[in-house]
Write a sequence for this structure.
């Protein structure tokens, strides 16, 4: 007496697919490496701690301590930056006269960049607040001056001990 279980075509296909899936899982386990760590597992012992500042060249940290600048230079820097800003925003003169007024306060590099600039294109017409020294170093200072168009930022350097404006930037408000 033989007992035969009738198999329908749907059942054969389902059993065949289950066998293929089981075979793939078994091969994956044998060939694959170690399983991925779970979120609750502690990190492997071979992982070194990461210093978030090491090797990061995208972040500039400037120590704004006044001790980096000679105390006697502070008022000189603010005075020079304010004088430069007052001359920079004057629109009532020719480009040559405007540049000549700025030249004694600028590095040669900045003077060359300003050559040919029309003072009418300066985005401000008045200073609205006091100059504020924001970044200090032995021979580098950044000064922020509030103007009606935003904030004027001047970079000053001291080649040979004399402070000169080396860069101009402004932030619109």
């Amino acid at each position: 007496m033989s007992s035969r279980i009738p198999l329908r075509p749907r059942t054969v296909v389902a059993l065949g697919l289950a066998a293929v899936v089981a075979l793939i899982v078994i091969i994956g386990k044998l060939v694959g490496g170690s399983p991925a760590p779970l979120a609750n597992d502690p990190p492997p012992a071979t992982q070194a701690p990461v210093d978030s500042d090491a090797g990061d060249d995208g972040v500039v940290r400037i120590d704004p301590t006044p001790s980096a600048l000679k105390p006697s230079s502070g008022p000189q820097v603010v005075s020079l930056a304010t004088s430069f800003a007052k001359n920079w925003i004057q629109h009532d003169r020719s480009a040559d006269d405007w540049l000549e007024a700025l030249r004694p306060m600028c590095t040669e590099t900045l003077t060359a960049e300003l050559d040919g600039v029309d003072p009418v294109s300066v985005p401000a017409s008045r200073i609205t607040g006091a100059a504020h020294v924001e970044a200090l170093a032995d021979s580098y200072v950044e000064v922020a001056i509030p103007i009606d168009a935003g904030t004027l930022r001047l970079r000053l350097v001291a080649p040979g001990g004399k402070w000169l404006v080396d860069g101009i930037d402004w932030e619109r408000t």
Q: What stands out?
A: The chain is about 30% helix and 15% strand. The domain at 66-172 is CATH 3.10.450.540 (Nuclear Transport Factor 2; Chain: A,). Confidence is low (pLDDT under 50) at residues 56-60, 62-72. The radius of gyration is 35 Å.
